Every structure is written in structure tokens, then in C-alpha cells.
Please model this.
Amino acid sequence: MQSIRQDIGIGIDVGGSGIKGAPVDLHTGNFLREQTLIPTPPNGSPAELAAIIKEVADSFSMPADVPVGVSFPAPVINGKIPMMVNLSQEWLGMNVTEFLCLELGKPVAVLNDADSAGYGEVHYGAAQGGQGTVLMLTLGTGIGSALVRDGILVPNTELGHIFLDDGTEAEPYAASSVFAREGWTFAQWAERLQRVFSHLEMLLAPDLFIVGGGVSQNHDKFLPLLHTRARIVPAKLRNRAGIAGAALFAAEKAEEQK
Model:
């Protein structure tokens, strides 16, 4: 983590069912107040969601110079949204960073939700204080990924869409949603996860794997069945990771612009 002058940042996590946020102590990653949660309107337009994001940010009555980071459920490349699955297609091609800066009336930093969670885990959670290459995989409906090298985020990796050596795509092969739908045992699922983890280790040689997603609560039932050179640990911050990571990312971006 680079040196930052701010002590507080606001992190906001935009999800398909809810938009939640909290002010974050940037030194510890802890929330300074209870988070605010507002339901996401079905197929909400950019204007609707921006109004909710602003409402969440304003609910904490923080000074105007407190940076705001937004974790967004899509890739964010140079501020723009190249593809959208879970929200309105009106977001497609939009420069979400510029749009939210205008709507909130202050600088806003936006990053992909998996990247935000991984960034939070590296700086405040399971990989806190560690160096080297950290790869976080979020096992859920799909497989999200975040790659961090020596504390620096490599954004928008989308490693759930890699193809294994026989041409099988990782996400529909080994996501936890498939595990639940098929009724596999943890041992059966671990056989599929092993192929994915081994392939990613061959490609990226990480020093540490972090496994997130709701199923990570049962990490003791499947992580010991996986065998890699790198250590594999469960995510620590759970639903705090995205908010903490977004707040820190925003503070670092604000520092760069000074």
C-alpha cells in the first residue's frame, strides 16, 4: 500500500440486489459506522443507481474531501464499462467514473467488484502484510478473480473464463453454483477445483491463493483437498472486503492526482 494522507475513505459496493457502503478507517480497514444498505432497483438505469450511490455516500455526513470508491459488478477499463451482465445495458460503453464524478459532485474512483474484494483482502485481510503475487478467486455463481502483485492491483483479470488444457472453460466447470446444482460431495467438487487451481498456478505462479465467496465458510471441507505449491487460505473479511478495498483504492487515486 502506498503512503496515503487520508485517514478515512468511503467504500460503496454495487450489487445486483443491494447497494451498500460505509466509511472506512484506511489504516485498519474497519468500518467507522454501520453500513448503509439500499436495495438495487430491478434493471435500474444509470441515473437511478447514481442517485442511490449518492444517497449512500451522503448518509455519513463526511467532509467533502473524503474519497469515495465504488465497487462495480463489471470490468472497468479506463473508467468505461465494456460488458454488463447483472445491471441495465444502459451502462454498456459508459464512462462510469466520469458519470459518477458528475452525479456525486466529487472525485469518485471505480473498480471491478472482484478486484475490490481482492484488494481489501490483500491490504486488510487474509494476505495483510504479504508481498509477492496474490491471486484471489471468488467462488459463487461464477468465478471472480483479483490479481495483486506486491500490493499493486492488476485489474480486470476475469480468470474464471480461462480454458483448461482440454478446452473446458473454468467457470461453468467448477463454480460453486455448479457444485450446488449437481449435488456433488466436497471431494467431487475438489477434483474440479484442483484442475482450475493447478492451471492457474502453472500460468501465474502465485505465492498465495485466497478463496472467497459464500462457500468459503465451509473452507475446511474442501481447501485441504487441494494441493498446490502456493498456500491456499480462505478470505477473512467476507462482505467487508469490497467496501474496504474500494475506499483504499479511492484514497490512493486521490493521492496520485495531487
Observations:
- Strands lie at 8-14, 18-25, 36-39, 68-72, 108-112, 133-139, 143-149, 152-154, 208-212, 231-234.
- The radius of gyration is 18 Å.
